[in-house]
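Inputs:
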Amino acid sequence: MSSENKTIDQFYNYISQRSLMATRCNACGLIFLPPRRGCPKCGSSDVEWTQLKGTGELQTYTIIHIAPPQFQPLTPYAVGIVRLDEGPRLFGIIKDVQHKALKRGLRLTLGFEEQKQEKWPRWPRYHFVPEKR
Amino acid sequence: MAAGESKFGKLEGRYAREIFADAVDEAFEGSPKVDRRDIQALFVGQMSDYYEHQGHSGPIFAEWAGLENVPAFRLEGACASSGLALAAAIMAIGSGRFETVMVGGVEKMTHRSTADVTEILSTASDFPTEQWNGLTFPGAFALIANAHMDRYGTTEEQLARVAVKNHRCGALNPKAHMAKEVTLEQALSSRMIAYPLKLFDCSLISDGAAALILTSPEAAKKYTDTPVHIVGSGQASDTIGLWEREDLTGFLASRLAARRAYEMAGLKPRDIDVAEVHDCFTIAEIVAYEDLRLCGKGEGGRLIDEGATEIHGRIPVNTSGGLKSKGHPVGATGAGQVYEMYRQLLGEAGRMQVEGAETALCHNLGGSGATCAVHILRRGD
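Outputs:
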């Protein structure tokens, strides 16, 4: 398979299609993010896109009170590092959660935002929300 | 063989190049046998063009330092920029290409709003993931703090104790930005920036510069009777994204840079008499204790509780006040740490002096740990 589209832009193209994709190494089986054309573990270039469920566990979090100008209207907002069920981690804003309920191990799932970005880099936004039981 | 430093703080109405000239002048004043014409190259660390809308700053700093037409190399590694400049200068001398060079570090930040500075600093994190999703630097270190608290039981009070200690030291430093003591109560009740990090867990937004003059061990003899030797230089990189890393309770780049510096010096952590570590946030100092092996993994909170890192403790850390109290003009910080340790090893640190200090360590971390430079200094015999 062509290695040409193992790019950050392609990752976001998939996000705009409401799909979380990561790169998987066919040689050693590692699933990894950010996407790259070479496996960070074994160096193989036999890498292809693979669909992730978008669910995982919160590893660590914080609540941001002071933010850059474009994020200031959202403050205070929660962000965290999520270990996805397939292995790789992902960073994102966490919405629809009581800040007091944030703790390691909290189950989260990826959500997608509809708002179109006008300016470069025009990447769509995603976020995490608590997983519904 | 020489070191100078500007005042750190809010230096209103002065540009980076002018502040750098202060540091350069002090370096030359302290070493009368060195002539500006002896300097063959400049290695200068500066983080961002955005603060002053000024790129291409290497030759500007050379010009304002009075170093006519020397090759000027600007290095950028976020808050470790001048740690990298020092590492590069050591390689340049070691290679035989140059004999005597200047290492500088500069940043001018306080003329910009806190929101602007927050945004400019955030450019040192990953754009497609971290910046794009609103991560700030306090936020990044808060992710580390929460992971460390969760895993090792480190407390907000222990974090605040780092601030109290460093302000107690900084109050003794005439160059410090915020040279005053703070109480544990003040630190714990300051406003939240990124949970659990409060205002007093964060280092300062400062202006400042530092300059060092380095030469080969042979040439040093003609310039000074009291050289300080750089016996270890270690550097390492890690993923730009904090979220990519397996271990969120410490910095692999710090551990690797420290190991390389200790190995080059032939020294062990217990040989260090005094250290400046990169306390951009209080949690970063606690993590640095562990990454530099001044204590075991997870024991950083206990080390601060025991008072081991106070000026008169077993292993004094950040006797200058650190980034927390002395200030954090990001590009200047690494060279500024060396300035402080140079003074310590010469016995010229005034009220901050650690008696009998012979071996010192400087730990300079870039961003959320994608870059680290560690240097070990020893007083000449």
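Remarks. Residues 8-16 of chain A form the longest helix (9 residues). DSSP finds one helix and eight strands in chain A.
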